[in-house]
Amino acid sequence: MLSYRHAFHAGNFADVLKHSVLTLVLEYMTRKDKGFTYIDSHSGAGMYQLADEYAQKTGEYKDGIAKIINADDLPEALEFYHRLILSLNSLSQNSLSMNPADLSLYPGSPGIAKEILRRQDSAHLFELHSTDHVLLTEFCQRWRKVFVKQSDGYQGVLSLIPPPSRRGVVLIDPPYELKEDYQKAVKTIIKAYGKFSTGTYILWYPVVKRSFVDGMKSNFINSEVKNLLQVELCLQTDTEEYGMTGTGLFIVNPPWQLKSQLESILPYLQEKLGNNETSYSLDQLIEE
After folding, report:
1. Which CATH number fits domain 6-286: 3.40.50.150, 3.30.870.10, 1.25.40.10, 3.20.10.10?
2. Model-level pTM?
């Protein structure tokens, strides 16, 4: 179908959760001098202009990143992500007087990775959408050791596992235009884990229909995958109506501190981004 454009949703509540986790995982990987490989199966455009027609049409970022950009009470675990967004918008931690609606830039996952990865690290980015692939290629022009391909991201992940460094982070973040993506994404991680069981895998999903998420969870539990964390932030209670009510991540081999970091992030995001229906969950689905 290839009609999905993340520009409509850049900076929304789902991005805040997903990208705050991604920054923590990538920052953790840089604590060792040895390089690592970052693989992104559905990369999007890399960077998004929040003033353009796509972001302005939905305004989703106003109920996401814009609600915390001026915050002075962030939990420590959110500070890295917060500083990164401020830096991209040429702001400092002390210049918290901007109008949040005037944010100009928001990074996709490649934009996050570009800010964190070092000279010894490499990135492999996959994007099928022709327009976003062009934008992604332009965004990556001055980035050393990055490889951008217009090809199937699921197969791309499997073709690169295990990485030469034996250190890797894989983000699988499909648009879920097709309901088959829910199981295809899980199966890709299960296959990749069979080849590279020490890698960290992050799988993002929308909560649109609970049965789809339950199916993903069941497939993981019935697999050989170990050390699986599930996190969710739901703005509304589950419904059979159309639309995303929440967002979640399955994380295989999370950094050891990540669960405790999420224990401080989730109630904060519930308070700042949510309402009286908002809830969160954090479960160690499978032990190490």
Report:
1. 3.40.50.150
2. 0.94
